[in-house]
Every structure is written in structure tokens, then in C-alpha cells.
Amino acid sequence: MGMAKSVAKVLAVMIATAAVPATAEAARCGNDAGGFPAWAEAFKGEAAARGISRSTLDKAFSNIGYARATIRADRGQKSFKLSLDQFMQKRGGPTIIRRGKSLKQQNAALFARIESRYGVPAGPLLAIWGMETGFGGFLGKEHTLSAVATLAYDCRRSDYFTDQFYAALQLVQKGILSPTARGAAHGEIGQTQFLPVNVLKYGADGDGNGHIDLVGSKADALASTANFLRGHGWSAGAGYQPGEPNFAALQGWNAASVYQRAIAIIGAEIDGR
């Protein structure tokens, strides 16, 4: 190949390369707060490319910061290593059973509607409601978007929580989640502690007002929980103790076996089974 042709080929490659816009740096995970601001900026660009509106991103990211309390909680989940008896005592099992029976009577019409629609009786719903937030009394105080964003950035479970963060941004865009909302340390939302992806999949309008509010509406929170269980294979009328058909749906709620068994025990006591 002659010198002139070689130079022409090099110039052609340079021109073609220059014509291709530079790709934005991908959001990279990290294990401390140092890289979080750069990650957030990169993530905003990626989210915009995936259809999250600029106005949503501006609102969502205006108060987002690295959530140290979330990281501490994520590294210190020790209660699931307890024995069943220890776990029941720590979570206040006897109190949940006592209050659950009372709430079942007080909200009989609501639980009847939910069971008619989803096939899930009151017991396991009250067990979950009681263990997650003390029947709506303790929703958490962490900034939800910061918690989910921090776990999306953190390298330990980045892929899983990246999906959760995209879901949270969609909830903001749909008007379901406030950009200033506060909740549990891992970004769980509402009275039964739904992660954002599950709000999108299973969120239900239990009170019929045309809006899903898992924080302010116990009917929405309980109906959504029943919808989640049905989505995980719940069969109306079947048992939910270990070895029975519906126990698998309880396993879908939480991966810890001690938690699954506690739901089954508390639910059965409330349902009188």
C-alpha cells in the first residue's frame, strides 16, 4: 500500500471516529461515600435514556444523598439468624396475635372484601402488617430515594437495587411516591413495607379511591399484600403452614425461613386455625 493511500485511510478512520458521539461514562458502584456523587450524575443520564423524564429526575435527585444508616442496616441484619422462639419474642409475636385478633374484628368488612377478591384470609395479612410496621405505627424515618439509590450504588447488591431504583423513579413519575417520602432503611414503602418493584407489580387500590397509597391507606397496603401473595401462587382455601400449598407464597414474601414460619404461626393464631 502506498504512503498516500495509508495516510488517506488513517484520516478516514479518524473522521469516522470523531463523528461518533462519546458515550457517557456508566454509573459505577462503590463501597464508600466518595464515589456516590459521580455515580448519581451518571445514573441520571442513564435513567433519562430509559424514559424517566427530566422533571422527575430533577425532583428525585434534588434531595438524594449517600445513606449511611442504610449501609449500617444492610450490614447488620442479625435478627434472621435467631431461633424461631427468639425471633417471635424479638418481633413481639404474642402482642401481634392479640392486636391482630382485635383488628380482624374491627375491620371485618375490609378483610372479607380482600379475601373475596384475592383468596387470602386475614391472618397472614395481619401477621405481615404487624411484624413489618406494628400495624402501620412504625414506617421508618429514612429518606426512601436516598436509601434505594445508596443500595443501587453499593457494590454488594448493585444489580438488584438498580432495578429497585428505576422502579422508585417510575413511582415518582406516576405520582405514587413522593420525592420526599421516608420509610424503612432499605427503601421499603408503606404499612407492609413493599420494595419499589413490588409496588409497580402488585400495588392495589384497596379503598377504591382511584389512587394507590401504601402509606396512608391500610386498605391499599393490605390489598396489595394479598395481591402479592396471590401473585406468588396463593390458592384460595388451601393451608399456609409449612408443607401446605400456600406456604410457598409466604416464602416469596421474605427469604428468611424464621420469618416465613413466624407469619404462618401468627396468622394461624389470628385466624383460629
From TrEMBL:
GO terms assigned for molecular function: peptidoglycan lytic transglycosylase activity
This protein's UniProt keywords: Signal
Superkingdom, natural source: Bacteria
Signal peptide: 1-26
Alphabetical list of Pfam families matching this protein: SLT_2
Domain Transglycosylase SLT: 36-240
GO process annotations (BP): peptidoglycan catabolic process
Coiled-coil parts of chain: none
Claim: Translocase is one of the keywords in the record: no
Protein name (Swiss-Prot/TrEMBL): Lytic murein transglycosylase
Organism, scientific name: Shinella fusca
